[in-house]
Amino acid sequence: LLTAISIERCLSVLCPIWCRSHRPKPLSGIISGLLWALSLLLNTLGYILCSLRPPARSCRLLLITIGSLDFLFCTPLMLLFSLTLFLRVKCSSQHFRTGRLFTIIMLTILFFLIFAVPLSVLILFDFLGYKFLYSPEIGFVLSCVNSSLNPVIYFLVGSYRDRRIKFTLRLAFQRAFED
């Protein structure tokens, strides 16, 4: 989903007229639904092949495929489009107003790269036969930290206007997503 969000956000900044006039309005919802369905399918297959049956070659092949798809396809695409967007917004002669949504996306991607990507790398290396001491545990802890940071990012970015943070969590989320 972060990859899809990065691509869509980058295209909306680089080609705003094309996005407004040619991009179908329900495209974001359709792509998100397809990504959720793909994730559900892959996780269901992983559960069936790796948990219900004794670990087999098909389980290993599926997990290597998921890890490769995540690490070799989605993450580089997300990095490319996020970096392009960041450079366009920060280095442009036109002064774009960097809103809360831009800040949320950039922080979420930064923390994803720091905390969630290592789990994918460690799982991929583990299934390729490279073993590291405590690697699954470290990867899962980092992934949990990433998941825990997202609500904090939303709260802090949403409360940026009022630095005293004297309002509710709901108002912070509302302000964060008002872009």
UniProtKB/TrEMBL annotation:
Annotated compartments: Membrane
Keywords: G-protein coupled receptor, Membrane, Receptor, Transducer, Transmembrane, Transmembrane helix
PROSITE patterns linked: G_PROTEIN_RECEP_F1_2 (PS50262)
Coarse class of the protein's main subcellular location: membrane
Record domain G-protein coupled receptors family 1 profile: where: 1-154
Statement: the UniProt record of this protein carries the keyword Flavoprotein: no
Transmembrane segments: 30-49, 61-89, 101-125, 137-157
Gene Ontology MF, one: G protein-coupled receptor activity
Record membrane topology: Multi-pass membrane protein
InterPro entries the UniProt entry points to: GPCR_Rhodpsn_7TM (IPR017452), MRGPCRFAMILY (IPR026234)
Gene Ontology cellular-component terms listed: plasma membrane
Protein name, UniProt field: Proto-oncogene Mas
Naturally occurring in which organism (per UniProt): Eurypyga helias
Organism taxonomic ancestry: Eukaryota, Metazoa, Chordata, Craniata, Vertebrata
